[in-house]
Amino acid sequence: DWSEFYGSLGLERFDCPGKGRGLRVTRPFRVGELLLSCPPFSHVLSVKERGCYCENCFTRKEGLAKCGKCKKAFYCNVKCQKADWAMHKLECSAMTAFGENWCPSEMTRLVARILAKKKTQKESCASEKILLIGDIQSHVEDEDNEQKQNREADIAALHRFYSKHLDLPEHKDLQTLLSQVACNGFTIEDDELSHMGTAVYPDVALINHSCLPSVIVTYNGTSAEVRAVQDMKPGDEVLISYIDLLYPTDDRNHRLRESYFFTCNCQECKSKSKDKAKLKVRKRSDPIEPDDISNMTRYARKTIREFRACKHIKNILPSSLLEMCEQSLEQMGSVFADSNVFMLHMMYQAMGVCLYLQDAEGAVSYGERIIKPYSQLYPPYSLNVSSMYLKLGRLYMSLEKHSAGVRALKKAMAIMEVAHGKDHLYLKELRKEITQK
């Protein structure tokens, strides 16, 4: 009984005008308090993280044991390996058979696991008209050509790599399921917001979006945990952010329409109160013309798209990516202030390239320019801010700047105690990190 389950947590489902279903609280919640913790319906570890994390529970540790057959999947112990076998067997022999040609997307892999899970629960997926996972929306009819092409590629990959172990549903039903997962899947990230994998949480998928979120979702192993980042009173809707909140209103809503097929109408989107600060221009003796600002904004958006595309080009040199960042920062810097979000975006990308190149000094120089504007432009208890303090703290430590490192790590910890809970493994490790230095 859903109402009983949510009621015991101080939550209730309700029909939200213009948004469909939603969740609201039936009792007060304080900042940092846990509203909901739930395991995934299904989850998958990113191929890039294999060997670093257990495929089953996402524990990070040294000396994981590898699968004896495919030698590609890694586990904490025999217990985790057995628990994951129903899912891993979908890929185990296929990875060996296809070798380097085994290349399903993370979305394909997750959908295969969802279908396998439904089969083990004795649900006849093939005969279902719509493959609902809980109460999750599909937007097949709203997708653009690129999204449709991606769906078709995923369906082709399901047939190519998984047909041996799965009786795949009809084409139309697969389109629906892929659309559901695209709109409602969650990216599982570590303490520095590095991508670890993808999962589906039907309970968390009930929560609607706001650019002024009342809760935040973090991960404990593979479980999703929802904590309050504002004090809440009975009747308040539970709201998360589906997107990165750094950007101004028009950019946020463009992203929401592109990925989630709606426009946000929250108080921040109505008032645009932070847009002026987010789009700050440089102070100059000669005033900057409005046309110069709009032209530079167009240039910035184009550069961000081009940089994103370049990152996916095989064999592109990191030095070329860094050069792109530096050139765009120089160009934008003639009009935009350093705290302008488009400047911050390219600084963040440059910092990432420096980290990849193991240039700690370079990464710190960008991080130091980013952190203050981040703290001002993001909402309180933002993971984007805590992860930046973590990165900076660890970089300072590597450069023997211990007091600066401890200061940065303590600032990260203050945010994470609210977002992750004081007993989270990340906090325990962070306290150790600080005391050891």
From TrEMBL:
EC nos: 2.1.1.354
UniProt-listed Pfam families: SET, zf-MYND
Top-level taxonomic group: Eukaryota
Residue ranges occupied by any SET domain in the UniProt entry: 9-243
The keyword Cytoplasm is assigned to this record: yes
SUPFAM superfamilies, per the entry: SET domain
Keyword Zinc-finger on entry: yes
GO MF entries: histone H3K4 trimethyltransferase activity; zinc ion binding
Record function comment: Protein-lysine N-methyltransferase that methylates both histones and non-histone proteins, including p53/TP53 and RB1. Specifically trimethylates histone H3 'Lys-4' (H3K4me3) in vivo. The activity requires interaction with HSP90alpha. Shows even higher methyltransferase activity on p53/TP53. Monomethylates 'Lys-370' of p53/TP53, leading to decreased DNA-binding activity and subsequent transcriptional regulation activity of p53/TP53. Monomethylates RB1 at 'Lys-860'.
Official protein name in the record: [histone H3]-lysine(4) N-trimethyltransferase
Organism: Salarias fasciatus (Jewelled blenny)
